[in-house]
Amino acid sequence: MELLHNIIPTSSPVFKQLDELAAQKQIVVFSGLPGVGKSLYVREFQLIAKSYGRTVDLIQWDVARKSFETDFINKHFPIQDGTVHNGFKLIAGKWLMDEVSLWIEQHWDSDRLLLIEAPLVGHRFIELVKPTDDKDLEMHLASEAVAVVMPIPSSEVRAKIEAERMRQVKEDAKVWSGAKPSVMLMLWKMTCGIANEFGKDIDLSVQPPYDSAIYEFVFKKILQHRNFVPLIIDEVFEVPQESEDALHDQESMKADAETADHYGQMIQESYTEDAINEVVSNWYKN
Length: 286
What we know:
The chain has 286 residues and is α/β, with parallel strands linked by helices. The protein has a domain at 13-154 and 219-274: 3-Layer(aba) Sandwich (Rossmann fold), CATH 3.40.50. The chain has helices spanning 13-24, 38-51, 61-66, 71-76, 86-107, 135-141, 155-168, 181-197, 212-222, 257-270, 273-281, and strands spanning 27-30, 56-60, 113-117, 146-153, 228-233. The chain has a 5-stranded parallel β-sheet with strand order 2-3-1-4-5, with helices on both faces. The protein is globular, with a radius of gyration of 19 Å.
C-alpha cells in the first residue's frame, strides 16, 4: 500500500486504527474539541482511504458553514463580533442531515466512503449523533458501518498542544487560525461542567486540569446512540506548520446560494430566536 505525504508513521497505533476504519467503514465522522487535530486526522484518513482505491466524499464544518453566509441568511442570522449566529448551526445541521440521507440512498454498500468533520461542540453538526425520527436513516447511522472517531490526547500530549498554541497564537491577535489558548481552556471548563451534569463532581471554581478520562466519559455519553471510537493520542507527530485553511479541503461538499437560502428560510420560519438559542444550548443532551 503506497501512501503519499502521510504524517502519521505507518508503525503508529494511531495509523493502524485509522487504517482499519478506512478499510471497513462506510461513514466516518471525526469530532471533538478544538485543538486536538481533527483536521489533520481527517486529511491523513483521507489519504489512507484513497490508498485502498476508495472514493471519499468529504464534508467539513468550516467549509460547509461558510456557504451559508448569503445575504438572506446574514440578514436574519447576523454574525456579531466574529461569532456565528446560532441559527447558522441549525441551518447547516438540517442541510447536513439531508445530504447524509441522500448519500446513504445513493452509495450505501458501495466502495465510496463519506468522511465528515463535525466538531459537535456547541451544536456544530450535532444532528449526526442525535436519534432521528427517520427510522431508515437512524438504522444506518446507528450501525457498525458508521464510526464517530474522537481524537483524545493524553495529558502529556495535551500540554504540548497547549504550549504550541500559546506560542503560535497570541490572545490579542486580530487574525489567527484555530482556537486561541483561552478558548481551549474555556471549552475544557465547559466540558467539565457537562461532566458534572452527567454525575461527576469537578471543582469549577478554578480552571480544572485536562483529563483524558473525563473527555472520553463526556463524549461517550453524548455519543451513546452511535458507534463511538476513541482515538487515543499519546505521541506527538511532526506536523509542518500550516494555516488552518490549508487543512480544509475546498472540494468539501457545500450548499450553493439557492440551497442555502432554502434552509435559511426553513429555520427562519420554524424557530423564534429564543427557541434557536434553547436548542443550541442543549446540544449535548439526548
